[in-house]
Amino acid sequence: MPTKTLRIPTADGRADAFAAFPEDGGRHPGVLMYPDGFGIRPVVREMARELAGHGYYVLVPNLFYRHGPAPVIELPGHIGEEVRPAVFAQLMPLIEAHTTERVLSDADAYLGFLTAQPEVGAGPVAVTGYCVGGLLATRTAAAHPGRVAALAAFHGPVGADGPDGLSSLTAEVHFGHAESDVTPEALGELNRALDAAGVGYTSEIYPGTVHGFTMADTDAFDPAALRLHWDRLLPLLRRALTTI
Fold it and tell me: The pTM is what?
């Protein structure tokens, strides 16, 4: 599986990024994958490689490149509950500094870079995200209707911008929520906003999960939920993206 470490020109510098893509020398649909707040690390690279193995060019940017290359902070091999408070104490200032203006400026740069790669075919792309990356993916898709054909977000605060944040979506959507992250009432409100946007979607609570369930290097990891994530994500991409 070919992989690359890349530097994406942005309005504020250069964002380091990881890319994985099939080794057949062809052109493939592009997927912009936003990692969770812990950023690019072995588990995220492995998820990108697995997705690429299904026929996609997957680009994973360092969300916090303004503060340095990934890993922006030192991370243990396993991010257990005993170290999470100290890790989040370092991460929260970076997350809070990552304003909507920065998110959207970076999204323009990331999408332009992704679609310009010689291994990426013509046509729309997909955007996926995990944790805070799910919110960034949602903002990216909403800001680029028609350009983004599929949006998937997992255990992310996708409703943080309210119904107006979803109103311009045109992508087909899958939201996979952790049971600990959303109440049935909040899920109903979110789904009504998706109904109002007029998009095709699935939006569901993954049973028995807690925030971060896809990430194998955390205590939140749930192998069954990760399999369900692939069972939802891969058919969405097959429906929405065409291979050129």
Answer: 0.97
Select from 102, 97, 77 the least CA-distant residue to 11: 102
Q: For residue 178, give the amino acid letter.
A: A
Within 8 A by CB and 6+ apart from 242, the residues are: 29, 121, 123
Q: Where are the alpha helices (DSSP H) in the chain?
A: 42-52, 84-97, 100-116, 132-143, 184-197, 223-240
4 pLDDT exceeds 70? yes
**For residue 207, what is the DSSP state?**
T
Kindly state which CATH superfamily the domain 3-240 is placed in. Answer: Alpha/Beta hydrolase fold, catalytic domain (3.40.50.1820)
User: Distance (Å, rounded) from C-alpha 47 to C-alpha 40?
Assistant: 11
SS3 86: helix
pLDDT in tens, 128-160: 999 999 999 999 999 999 899 999 999 999 999
